[in-house]
């Protein structure tokens, strides 16, 4: 048996306190009588139903309605309607809302009284705005839909649960606000029409055009006039027509996707490490908070094995999810000269450790690869991770010159104060970057470094630390004949993903990104089939055809004259061209040689051009043919050039005997080394490459 003190404590804690004084009550009825008797004025001040004319407050909408009738002589009619079913009532309600440009919503649950079901519908503008988030989002341009006060327009609905008949007591007059379609939702009929078209795969732009055409013809004046692409995007996301979101929680939905893909005959998910969980197996160097989702379809695996021994490109795409995760892509170049993504990883960071975990599982699937070139941005972690996984194997690292140029311009803003000096230095950097002769490059580099050391020491330290030791990675003269100069294949993929597949919208969820990548990979298969069977006019083929047309025009107009044709070496008078040596495009000079050798001067048909451009170009013939072209405009033969070089050597020897300055001799030494390197690179040299 409980003690008396326990009983007193229990009775005290269960009593209902008054909000205006220290008194407590056992029942709510007693509390209500107390408030009406002792706190009438204070209680009235807390009422939410305020008159928009005199600011008087009342306990209910019905009392406020009576006040407006009696005190302010407002005409407030009451309409009564009867319907045989709820569907008939809903149809009438939709028509009434469309006619009056209003919308009614239910604030509380329905009440049941014997055989009756009762509920009340209020104007959607009635009430106060209740924020649900933390206020980070900017307020909509039209403002709140809630007016901060009560609107007396409402519907009292009663349904007979036995017969199904519906009776409505309708107060159609609105107060405290104007009629504004900006605060009305899109009608359900319009939503159903849009949903049907989305289900059929009609593009959003086409849906919007059709809707506006129909509204123009019908003279619509409702909220559908304000329909935008964003509204259709929101509806598409909410309907989840493609079944992308398998759960409202992104993590649960992504896990469901991974499990579903595991059941397929070829599992494209090569690793999945969610945040907050430890990972075991081949991926074992990731922290608990790391996230890594890597995918590679069967087509991508085969493409990497086929093209991965030529060029490998790696880059990261930002802004693909709301979690600041990075989309890391591995790309190769196919036979048609287009970039092909062959693996993806979604991760929370891109340091060498995480990249190695990604590349380890790729290596397990495709085996060893020995690419000739590896291209990335200026960061070192990509090449470090690649060599740590696949080995170096004499792979030449190339840095995207677009990233180099951007880094230089950014650093000039930081380290050089004068705009005039920045422009001057940037000009010299561009000249240095585009120099195609190694000896000239070394000379210009020394001159630039001497100038920077004397006048702009901060930029000198930056350039000497990050670029001079790695000049072979970015200087054009050290990458003659390479296939790529910029990472535009990766940039092209970024645009394809964000503009075409994500439709220019900010993606927020990982499961949506996973679905998009799988769809993109599927479409790549069909693109490759079309390019193989039908051919495709890629940018590289188009450039080759332009060079061929230019060569035909030059031959027809006799703009090029063949000077010599000995030992398969051609010398042509022309301007210097970087097509073959830098851009890896069949330049017009090689077209001229080909037409000369085959005694053809007729124009190829479009079919012949496309077929010829589709055949993979032989790199050895490419290099050999271009080495036999003199594009400087000189008519000197080899013996004459040798005599000039010998004369320079004698003059150098004479000047060197009278020189005592160590700095000058070191500079000459560097140039001599460059000259020897150029001679050794000659194909006729026994040690040449």
UniProtKB/TrEMBL annotation:
Q: Which domain of life is it from?
A: Eukaryota
Provide the GO MF annotations for this entry. zinc ion binding
Sorted alphabetically, the keyword list is: Metal-binding, Zinc, Zinc-finger
Which InterPro entries does this entry report, sorted A to Z? Answer: MULE_transposase_dom, RegFact_GeneExpr_CellDeath, RNaseH-like_sf, Znf_C2H2_type
Domain annotation C2H2-type: ranges:
16-44
Which regions span the lipid bilayer?
Answer: none
Does this UniProt record's set of keywords contain Zinc?
Answer: yes
Please tell me whether the keyword Transmembrane helix is annotated for this protein: no
What PANTHER family does the record point to?
C2H2-TYPE DOMAIN-CONTAINING PROTEIN, PROTEIN CBG17840
What is the protein name stated in its UniProt record?
C2H2-type domain-containing protein
* Natural source organism: Amphimedon queenslandica
């Amino acid at each position: 048996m409980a003690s008396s003190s326990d009983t007193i404590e229990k009775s005290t804690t269960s009593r209902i306190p008054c909000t205006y004084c220290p008194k407590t009550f056992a029942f709510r009825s007693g509390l209500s009588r107390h408030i009406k008797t002792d706190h009438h004025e204070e209680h009235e001040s807390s009422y939410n139903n305020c008159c928009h004319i005199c600011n008087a407050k009342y306990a209910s909408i019905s009392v406020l309605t009576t006040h407006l009738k009696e005190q302010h002589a407002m005409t407030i009619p009451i309409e009564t309607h009867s319907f045989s079913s709820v569907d008939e009532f809903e149809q009438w309600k939709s028509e009434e809302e469309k006619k009056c440009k209003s919308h009614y919503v239910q604030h509380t649950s329905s009440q049941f009284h014997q055989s009756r079901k009762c509920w009340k519908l209020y104007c959607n503008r009635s009430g106060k705005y209740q924020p649900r988030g933390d206020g980070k989002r900017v307020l909509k341009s039209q403002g709140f839909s809630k007016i901060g006060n009560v609107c007396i327009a409402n519907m009292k609905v009663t349904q007979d649960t036995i017969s199904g008949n519906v009776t409505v007591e309708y107060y159609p007059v609105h107060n405290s606000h104007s009629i504004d379609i900006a605060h009305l939702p899109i009608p359900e009929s319009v939503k159903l029409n849009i949903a049907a078209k989305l289900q059929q795969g009609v593009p959003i732009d086409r849906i919007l055009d059709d809707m506006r055409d129909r509204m123009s013809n019908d003279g619509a004046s409702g909220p559908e006039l304000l329909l935008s692409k964003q509204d259709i995007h929101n509806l598409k996301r909410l309907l989840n027509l493609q079944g992308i979101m398998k759960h409202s929680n992104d993590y649960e939905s992504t896990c469901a996707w991974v499990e579903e893909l595991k059941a397929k005959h070829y599992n494209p998910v090569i690793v999945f490490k969610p945040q907050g969980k430890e990972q075991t197996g081949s991926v074992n160097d990731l922290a608990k908070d790391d996230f890594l989702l890597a995918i590679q379809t069967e087509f991508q695996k085969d493409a990497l094995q086929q093209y991965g021994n030529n060029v490998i490109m790696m880059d990261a795409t930002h802004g693909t999810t709301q979690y600041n995760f990075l989309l890391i892509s591995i790309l190769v170049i196919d036979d048609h000269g287009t970039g092909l993504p062959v693996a993806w990883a979604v991760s929370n960071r891109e340091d060498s450790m995480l990249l190695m975990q990604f590349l380890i599982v790729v290596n397990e699937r495709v085996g060893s690869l020995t690419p000739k070139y590896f291209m990335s941005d200026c960061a070192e972690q990509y090449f470090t991770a690649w060599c740590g996984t696949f080995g170096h194997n004499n792979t030449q690292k190339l840095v995207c010159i677009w990233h180099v140029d951007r880094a230089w311009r950014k650093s000039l803003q930081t380290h050089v104060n004068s705009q005039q000096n920045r422009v001057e230095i940037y000009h010299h950097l561009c000249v240095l970057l585009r120099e195609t002769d190694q000896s000239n490059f070394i000379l210009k580099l020394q001159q630039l470094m001497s100038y920077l050391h004397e006048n702009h020491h901060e930029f000198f330290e930056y350039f000497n630390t990050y670029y001079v030791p790695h000049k072979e990675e970015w200087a054009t003269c050290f990458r003659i004949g390479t296939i790529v100069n910029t990472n535009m294949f990766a940039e092209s993929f970024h645009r394809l993903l964000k503009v075409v597949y994500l439709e220019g919208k900010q993606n927020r969820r990982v499961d949506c990104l996973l679905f998009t990548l799988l769809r993109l990979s599927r479409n790549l298969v069909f693109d490759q089939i079309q390019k193989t069977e039908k051919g495709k006019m890629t940018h590289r083929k188009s450039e080759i055809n332009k060079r061929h047309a230019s060569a035909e025009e030059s031959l027809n107009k006799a703009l090029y004259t063949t000077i010599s044709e000995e030992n398969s070496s051609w010398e042509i008078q022309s301007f210097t061209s970087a097509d073959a040596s830098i851009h890896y495009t069949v330049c017009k000079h090689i077209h001229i040689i080909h037409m000369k050798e085959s005694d053809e001067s007729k124009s190829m048909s479009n079919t012949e051009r496309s077929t010829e451009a589709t055949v993979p170009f032989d790199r050895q013939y490419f290099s050999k043919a271009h080495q036999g072209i003199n594009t400087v405009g000189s008519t000197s033969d080899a013996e004459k050039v040798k005599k000039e070089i010998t004369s320079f050597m004698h003059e150098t020897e004479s000047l060197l005997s009278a020189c005592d300055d160590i700095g000058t001799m070191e500079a000459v030494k560097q140039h001599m080394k460059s000259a020897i390197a150029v001679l050794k690179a000659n194909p006729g040299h026994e040690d040449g490459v």
